[in-house]
Specification:
By secondary structure, the protein is mainly β. The protein has one domain. 14% of the residues lie in helices and 40% in strands. It has one helix and five strands. The protein is rod-shaped. The relative contact order is 0.20.
Length: 156
């Protein structure tokens, strides 16, 4: 009698143990066009991030663009960078030469022609690729959209 009682208690538990895994969901199949490797992900394609830097003018060698657009310049501008956003932080506290390629330049009152020491704000985009990606080509390209130049502010 004891053996039958034990067998009666074990049999339902064994049946339940066999039935539960059978009811589990099968693993989710990935679609054929899904990137299976991080190097294939969308983060590994070059994309633009906002780029801002400001400081004082160190040198100016730009001329009006051949495109004829009013206020657009082509050439090189060197800025003693003092403030940046996250994406421009590598240039902070350096003299960095920016290449102007038909870039809109706005001069403040009395700042045309620009002279060394004028305030400069540079706005543009920098091409980035996620750090985990093996192919880093194209990363770090700076494209300027706008440069603002003004006279230095006087301290009171």
């Amino acid at each position: 009698m004891r053996t039958t009682a034990r067998l009666g208690a074990i049999a339902p538990a064994a049946a339940l143990a066999i039935a539960v895994p059978a009811g589990a969901k099968p693993p989710h199949a990935m679609p054929p066009d899904h990137p299976s490797h991080p190097a294939d992900s969308h983060k590994c394609t070059p994309h633009n991030e906002a780029y801002t830097a400001s400081g004082t003018l160190a040198s100016w060698s730009a001329s009006p663009s051949a495109s004829g657009k009013k206020g657009h310049y082509t050439g090189t501008i060197t800025v003693a960078v003092t403030k940046t956003n996250h994406h421009a932080s590598a240039q902070e506290h350096t003299n960095f030469a920016y290449k102007l390629n038909d870039t809109k330049v706005r001069f403040g009152k009395g700042a045309n022609p620009p002279v060394v020491g004028d305030r400069v704000v540079v706005l543009g985009a920098i091409t980035t690729v996620a750090k985990k990606c093996t192919n880093q080509t194209g990363a770090g390209t700076i494209t300027l959209h706008k440069v603002d130049i003004g006279r230095p502010r006087h301290k009171k």
